[in-house]
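Troubleshooting log. The previous structure file for this entry was overwritten by mistake, so regenerating from the original sequence record. Sequence copied from the archived sheet and checked twice against the printout by T.R.
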Amino acid sequence: MIKILSIDGGGIKGLIPALILAEIEKRTQKPVADLFDLVAGASTGGILALGLVTPDENNNPAYRAEEIAHLYELKGQVAFPKAFQALSFVLKNLQKLGIISEKYPKEFLYKVFEDLYNSNKLSDALAEVLIPAYDIEKRKVFFFNSKKAKENPIYDFLMKDVAYAGSAAPTYFDPLKLNIADSDYLVLVDGGVYANNPALCALAEAKKMYTDAKDFLVISLGTGNPSKTWLYEDAKKWKRSDWTRKVLDISGHGVADTVDYQLGCLLPDINGQKRYYRFNVILNPNNEAIDNASPQNLGALRALAEQFIYENDETINNLCKTLTE
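Regenerated output below.
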C-alpha cells in the first residue's frame, strides 16, 4: 500500500495539521517521513511538508511535527509581524487604492525558511514530496517534485526557495523568480491559488510514481472550515469590492471541498477498511484569518486541534494502526 499525506494551505492555521501530525507521530512512535511514501502540501502545508522530510546531518528527520508546531507559535510573528498586523486595516485600504503592493515584505518569511531548511535541496527529502506553485508569466501550474529533482538537477531547488515560492500568497508576499536552465526562469506564486487542497494532485502523482501499486491510502489534513455565514439580505447589498475577497474565499474552500468529494468517490472503503481520511476542524469566526499570529489566536487554534484529536480518538487510532502495518 502506498501511503500519501496531503496538507492544505491556510497560513498560520497550519498549526492545526501540525498538531494532528504530532499526535500521529506520538501514537505510532515514528516520524512522518517514515510513515508516508509521498508528502504533499500547498502554501503553509508545503512549509510543513518540507519541514517533515528535511534531513539532519545524520540523514534522520531534522524535525518532528510537534517541533514545527512550536515554530508556528514562536516564528509566526516573524512571518506576520505584530507591527504589520496592527496596521492591517490601513494596509488593506492602501492596497485597494493601489498605493502599496504586497502586505508583507518577503524578508520576514525568508528568514524563517533559511533557519528551517538550511542548505537542503529537494533531492535531500527523506520521503517524496510534491509542492504546487503557479507561474504567472507562463500562465501554467508548476509542481516542485523531489523525484523529478533527483532525475534532473535543474529542478533540484533549495527547500527554502520551494517553501517561499509555494507559499507566496498574492497580496501578501511578492512572487519569486527562480532561474533554471540557460536563460529560462519561473515566476512563482502560492500554489494554493488553484490547489489549496493538493490531495488529488498527490494521488495522481503517486499513481505515476508507483506504477505497480494496486492500493493507495490518502490522509488529507485541512486547516479549518469557516463557520461564518453570509446572509442573502446582506449579499444583495454587496458591491464589487465586497465580492472580491469573498469570491476568493468561496473558491478556495469550494475547491478543497470538491477534492474531498472526488477522493471519497475514488477511494471508497473496501471490506470496512478506510482508504481515505479527511481531518478538518470548524473554525470560529475570530480564528479564520491566515495571518493572525497573536498569542490569543494561536492558543485558540491549538485548542481546536486538541479538541478534534479528543473527539476523533478512535479514528486516529485506526489510522495509526493502518500506517504501521
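Strands lie at 2-7, 38-41, 128-135, 140-145, 176-179, 185-190, 216-221, 276-279. Archived copy saved in two places this time.
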